[in-house]
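Milestone M4 deliverable, item 7.
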Amino acid sequence: MKTSRIKIISIWLIAISWITGGCKQLDKLTQFPLDYDETIVIPSLIGLNLPFNMVTPSIKTNSTQIFEINNTRKDLVEEIQLEKLVLNIIDPVDADFSFLESIEIYISAEILEEVLVAWKYDIEDSVGSSIILETSGDDLTPYIVLDEFTLKFTTVTDKVVLSDQTIEVRSTFFVDAKILGI
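Output delivered:
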């Protein structure tokens, strides 16, 4: 009698662990990265130690198509977070970010408030031509499921910029959604 109880409990424990492990695997089917690349230009001769703002042109999300490719829809998205934001100077080729003291990046959309999503403070002179910003970890689903959003850059420089700086903005969002119909 005791051994049959142990077998039944063992079978239940195995079934429960298989089901919970299976759910995690199923979740991974609708977790995917969403990448957006944009280019901005920081103009030459901006003031020292003064905030300077730039806004990107509207970034088309193409989210409907991207979600469809990943077997989900906008209304099934559970969460979208900015996972990584990298800035690379692409012109002039020998330039670096030593002219920056700090940078903050805000996301906004037509019907939504502006929210701080990434930043880097106390940027060292030896930073080079690429920097990775800290990200907020906030849920940005309302912005990314819309047709477009904009990014606003607030920078403070600690050196005079003598030439325009063309910067590639590479952002990677982590999307967690439900599978269609489940």
